[in-house]
Amino acid sequence: MTRYVALLRGINVGGKNLIKMPALKACFEANGFENVSTYIQSGNVVFEAPDRPSVQLTRRIEAMLAEAFDYVPTVVVRNRKQMRAIVERAPKGFGAEPTKYRYDVFFLKEPLTATAAMKHLPTNPAVDRAHAGTGVLYVSRVTAKATQSRLNKIISSPIYPSVTIRNWNTTTKLLELMG
After folding, report:
1. Which of 12, 23, 73, 164 is the most exposed place for a label (fewest CB within 10 A)?
2. Alpha helices (H) in the chain, listed in sequence order
3. Angle, CA 29 vertex, CA 31 and CA 49 arms, to 5°
4. Is-cis flag, bond preceding 111, omega within 30?
5. In whole angstroms, what is the distance from residue 100 CA to residue 77 CA?
6. Element (H or E) spanning 157, and its range?
7. Which fold does the domain 2-82 belong to in CATH?
8. pTM of the model
9. Domain 87-166 is classified in which CATH homologous superfamily?
10. Distance of alpha carbon 74 from alpha carbon 66, whole angstroms
């Protein structure tokens, strides 16, 4: 069995796509996933399943969520090895100054690549920094100048439907929960 995390995009945000974590956990268990746990209300599910390509798991999970919760889900799946690489390959110093910077990881749904995503990521060079990783973008912004950031304009970007964002603390905690 392989440990995975499913990152659900756009649930429990602004009163939309409300899904309680016990119901989400039960849905995964009812569909044969094992050792299922959730982390915070933003749609992070750690589970075990037979080793399969992420694309196959993603399709299966999206179909089961659509049926169970009557919404059109977008899910990004990463295995433990991929999550470890995401954390270990973060740019030098990423996450080191949480009082000065806000750090986020933009998880990209295949087939979107980091190279393609970088072309559409709106940034203000005086505030925002972005680095491409494997299947992710590492993004930081100066907290004191957050109102000058252009990152909120990603909502109107063509890549936005294929992105789910987790802050650095959540990303590292998910890796920890994966064992």
Report:
1. 23
2. 21-30, 54-69, 80-88, 114-120, 168-177
3. 75
4. yes
5. 30
6. none
7. Alpha-Beta Plaits (3.30.70)
8. 0.94
9. bacterial protein sp0830 like (3.30.70.1260)
10. 10
